[in-house]
């Protein structure tokens, strides 16, 4: 028995060395509404599994439930990293149904969307507390990153000692300012990308492997 | 009693800790929030009706002469007071009493009116009720982070009209602030409009899984089904 156990241990040690850790790390994709979290999650999932995670929309709070894509294997420099991606609802301190009325939505639908979005924020915060091993924080690089939500969430992530990668999304848009995001969070590395166009995804995957592998 | 268990109907005061681990009676985890301003208690109406009667009675006595009244009090005990007063005066000569006792009536009158002001138990109860309403109303309005307090109070101006009364109870205010800090993670400004306290949502173990209209909500407790006996 002892011999068998030793043999199994040594085999698992070898496989651990060759491949990623047995347990895939659960990486939460966080950020304010409409930053492109789902677009990024879909981009990663499509690139490595062929599936999508969820529907994308230009209307804020399209994602109102956390969605998970498990066992996404990312290969970088001959090394394989397996992660579970959790696409979370956009975090905000205020949800107002009137915001949705501009998008040709009936009032009843807007009120329901607003309620679901609020539940979604509660769920996202709960996941952050309990269930993630690392965070990809997505920001729209055309908007001001100095907000209460961003400061608070980054603060929570830092207090949890979670590895965090900050992505400056939407570089394909006019008015994109990556440096502004880098200045806002100088203690973290900021990676520019366009999840929609697939620009600079190579660097994103390299950093994911480096941070969460 | 703004929180009510939707399973067994048990009510909890605003800010109660009991319900945090589920309803102590039935174990239910679904509660309903009833705003205090909406309570139209028929009981309070009955008490207000009683108040004029009790104040009318001493008023009648004050009008009658004190000397005669003391003699007629045994009669008062047997029958209702307001009707007895005229009956007792009718036995004596009204003109005599008014002329002879008018001087003596003035010193005794304050005593009678003092008794009248000490009597109205009904009005005191009503005052208590309005205090409770104010406390609940402002407990619902004082929320979220300090920088948002201004806007929050403006949103519920109607519910906060008598702030002077709540200031008279600093202990309750302090307690309310403490409870708000503990509980207020999502504030429903109006249907479809919410304000969220992210730190509270992050800090609390309970997980809100469903918001419903009219202030109902469902929370999932960390050990929802392991409710301990008290």
TrEMBL record, chain A:
One GO BP: tRNA methylation
InterPro entries attached here? GTP-bd, P-loop_NTPase, Small_GTP-bd
Top-rank lineage group of the source organism: Archaea
Positions of the G domain? 26-170
GO CC annotations?
cytoplasm
Molecular function as annotated in GO: GTP binding
**NCBIfam families xrefs:** small_GTP
The UniProt entry, under PANTHER family, shows: TRNA MODIFICATION GTPASE GTPBP3, TRNA MODIFICATION GTPASE GTPBP3, MITOCHONDRIAL
Query: Per its record, how is this protein called by name?
Result: GTP-binding protein
Organism name: Halorubrum tropicale
From TrEMBL, chain B:
Q: Where is the composition biased (Basic and acidic residues)?
A: 148-157
Q: Where is the composition biased (Polar residues)?
A: 50-66
InterPro entries for the chain: OapC-like
- Which intervals of the chain form a coiled coil? none
**Per the record, which residues fall in region Disordered?**
1-174
Comp. bias (Low complexity): 101-120
Q: What is this protein's name? A: Origin-associated protein OapC
The organism named in the record is Halorubrum coriense DSM 10284
């Amino acid at each position: 028995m002892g011999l068998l156990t030793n043999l199994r241990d040594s085999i698992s040690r070898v496989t651990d060395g060759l491949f990623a850790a047995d347990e895939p790390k659960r990486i939460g994709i966080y950020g304010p509404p409409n930053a492109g979290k789902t677009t990024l999650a879909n981009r990663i999932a499509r690139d490595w599994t062929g599936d999508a995670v969820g529907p994308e929309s230009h209307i804020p709070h399209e994602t109102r439930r956390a969605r998970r894509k498990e066992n996404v294997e990312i290969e970088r420099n001959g090394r394989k990293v397996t992660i579970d991606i959790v696409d979370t609802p956009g975090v905000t301190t205020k949800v107002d149904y009137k915001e949705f009325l501009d998008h040709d939505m009936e009032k009843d639908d807007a009120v329901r969307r607003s309620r679901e979005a609020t539940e979604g924020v509660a769920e996202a915060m709960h996941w952050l507390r309990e269930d993630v091993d690392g965070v990809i924080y997505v920001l729209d690089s055309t908007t001001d990153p100095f907000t209460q939500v961003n400061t608070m969430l980054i603060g929570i992530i830092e207090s949890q000692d979670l590895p965090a990668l900050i992505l400056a999304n939407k570089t394909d848009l006019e008015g994109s300012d990556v440096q502004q995001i880098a200045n806002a969070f100088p203690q973290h590395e900021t990676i520019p990308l366009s999840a929609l166009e697939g620009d600079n995804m190579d660097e994103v995957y390299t950093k994911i492997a480096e941070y969460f592998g | 009693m703004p929180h009510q268990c939707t399973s067994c109907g048990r009510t909890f005061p605003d800010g109660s800790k009991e319900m945090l681990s589920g309803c102590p009676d039935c174990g239910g985890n679904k509660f309903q929030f009833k705003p205090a301003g909406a309570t139209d208690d028929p009981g309070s109406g009955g008490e207000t009706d009683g108040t004029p009667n009790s104040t009318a009675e001493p008023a009648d006595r004050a009008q009658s002469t004190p000397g005669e009244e003391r003699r007629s009090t045994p009669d008062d005990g047997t029958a209702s007071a307001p009707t007895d007063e005229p009956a007792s005066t009718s036995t004596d000569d009204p003109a005599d009493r008014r002329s002879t006792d008018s001087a003596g009536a003035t010193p005794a009158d304050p005593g009678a009116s003092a008794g009248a002001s000490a009597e109205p138990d009904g009005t005191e109860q009503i005052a208590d009720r309005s205090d409770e309403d104010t406390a609940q109303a402002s407990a619902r309005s004082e929320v979220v982070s300090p920088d948002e307090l201004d806007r929050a109070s403006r949103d519920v101006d109607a519910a906060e009209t008598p702030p002077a009364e709540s200031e008279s109870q600093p202990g309750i205010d302090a307690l309310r602030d403490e409870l708000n800090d503990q509980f207020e993670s999502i504030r429903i400004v109006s249907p479809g409009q919410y304000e969220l306290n992210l730190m509270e949502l992050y800090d609390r173990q309970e997980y809100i899984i469903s918001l419903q209209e009219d202030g109902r909500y469902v929370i999932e407790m960390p050990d929802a089904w392991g409710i301990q006996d008290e």
